[in-house]
Amino acid sequence: MENLENIGALAVLLAFCLAIYAVFGSVTGKLRRNPFLIVSAERAVYGVWFLITLASAILVSALMTGDFRFSYVAEHSNRAMPAIYKFAAWWGGQEGSLLFWSWLLATYAAVVVFTNRRKHRDFMPYVVAVLATVQTFFLILNAFVVTPFQMLASGNLITAVPDGNGLNPLLQYPAMAIHPPMLYLGYVGFAVPFAFAIASLITRQPGDGWINTTRRWTMVTWLFQGCGIMLGSAWAYHVLGWGGYWAWDPVENASVLPWLGGTAFLHSVMMQEKKGMMKVWNMVLVSATFFLCIFGTFLTRSGVVSSVHAFAQSPIGKYFVTFLAIGIAATIYLILDRLDYLKSEAQLEAVVSRESSFLFNNLVLLASCFAVLWGTLFPVISEAITGEKISLDPPWFDRLMIPIGLFLLFLTGVGPLFAWRRTSTDSLRRNFMWPGIASVVLTAVLIAAGIRHVYALISFGFCVFVAVTIILEFVKGAKQIAAKTQTNFAHAVVELTHRNTRRYGGYVVHMGIVLMFVGFTGAAFNKNRVDEMKPGDSVRLGSYQLTVKDTHEGENENYLWQNASIEVIKNGSNLGILTPESRMYKASRQPTHEVALRSRLNEDLYLNFAGINGGRVILQSYIFPLVSWIWIGALTLIFGTLIALVPSKIKREYARTQVVGITRKHATVEK
Amino acid sequence: MKKYGKFAALVVIIVGTLLWLATAGIKENQTYYKTVAELGHMGDQAYVKRLRVAGDVGAGSIVRKGGVVEFTLVQEKLNLKVAYDGSDPLPDTFRDGAQALADGKMGHDGVFHANKVQAKCASKYQAKPGQRPVTPASTNKASL
To answer: What does pTM read for this prediction?
Structure first.
């Protein structure tokens, strides 16, 4: 087909028109009480999905077949690339990734409309309107600003180039192909709870319908985002050759900001569900999280803060700023105008209570969010104020975020064990005696073993404290069940978890966080050295003896390679040969380093072959203690979130302590 | 009101600690963005402050001498000699013609001593308009 690009461009344009129709159709339908208009607006949402899917399919097929008349295809694909990376090129560049964003949003919107086709009829029109407004904004970008259907032309004729640039070989790595979609699933997903929150505000909903409806959305979204962040970290660690997994780069920060906001939101909604408190706060949090998602997208694409990752400079910055400004202003106005509907039903009673631990969890998460935002935007802020562009270095972030992280870790342990309203000293002693003892003993042992790093000691102390509290919770609950039902302990643990998946899934998530902190803390004991060695030379790093045996080089059709065989001996026992390699890709003239990794639970030995200088191997060797626990913790966190998504066996109704002026949820269903 | 006093005190302590950490850390952890041209006009300040200089890596200028990598950063026809002696390996994206950022201090020998070098990651990271491998006479929008 010759003119598929025209169909693609037309589809985007029509989708843009339909999205606008969906906004006005549903609002007018609601105000005029015209059900036909409302339904037609919902159908428009399906239409938008169909059209964007069509446009995406055209772009993807151009990528797969190598239609190098498309400038997008010429820039992001080439003939030699494996099919999976040709497909991944859909989100590999600016234009394609924004189309991908649009497509995800359209998909989410279609799912929301479909699953709620018989529910929440009173405020669904506004949910549709909010989602369609966001959709319209992205379609403006797709259709008019950075269209993926731009052709290469010579004079007035469309031409093709023989082959494209291809994807950077550094990114031709499976984790990297799925890292962006994971992050986007997270970024885009927060639009849904936001839309429900706004719709519930506009229609002055009395209850917490929007929270109950969107709890799973929020968790799934939060999970995707967490996976995306961790995949990015794992990729950096395994591929970039310096063994880092986090560097406070603006783009990394942009991805972690909404995740922090989302984490705060997931916790504080519990206060609203169970106590009817923090209603304004939840509105603020869900909006802030959504706008941080948009802001993150903006930060990665506009080149406003220079970053190692950033997309090239582009004209889309001002569109994002405008959208953010209008969106935030409208949200603030709406919240202020509806304050009366967001009155708290209960009050804080004591400092040592569940409520208070949620409050401080939120305060600290928000503070960390603000700190990261401030640090990321510091070059922009300082340039605006002093005229000098100044950036804050990673140590500044560490300085703030390490104590914040430790405090959060502490709350992870104590929060779930505080009782609602107030906690008696007796229950404090009962719950915290063993964890406290374990923590003190471990810290003493570590000090005796010669560890003097203060943060590391605190961190390990807290880790063991939290881990013991969590294990005790499972043991106590399971023992009761085992005694009552005469089953074995393992079965009782499963039964216990199944009875209240949110609570025990949450504990597993907390355990994942503890394991990740163990891994982070290992960084305090990293060791490294750089040596130039000729074959036969050997060096010591920690307890390892590294000897260069020989070097090899060669080439294949894709790249030239050089490597060194390094014999590794630890405490007298030979652990075999590691061969770190460096490659030079022919097509892109891009060098890459294939690090050699010996990964164990206690530490990773990480060797990077940095090159050859006059026959001498430049070898960078590192020891990263405990780093594997980060990945184990991340998997545990995913597992815990999945548990929490399973419906509980026993439905719980939470009686509120005081109920002031609450009409029954969804008591009035308008037609 | 007593319990609110306690909450207020805790909040003040937490926020205060964080503010103190943030502001006290700013001075020692800041890096000034400078162009190669500005660097020349900074005078003695250039030897004191931590600086970040951007530019393109001069073609054929990368030389490895022991643990030190020397190269030239080119920005608007001005050259800056850089010696990198950091412990991290240079990124794979660091090569002739790459856009690079060097963090470090100006030395009295006229060489910029960097202990951190970043190079613009490619791919996601698109080519600047001038660097397109395809150089069509003009690019027209398809049909619209």
So the answer is: 0.87
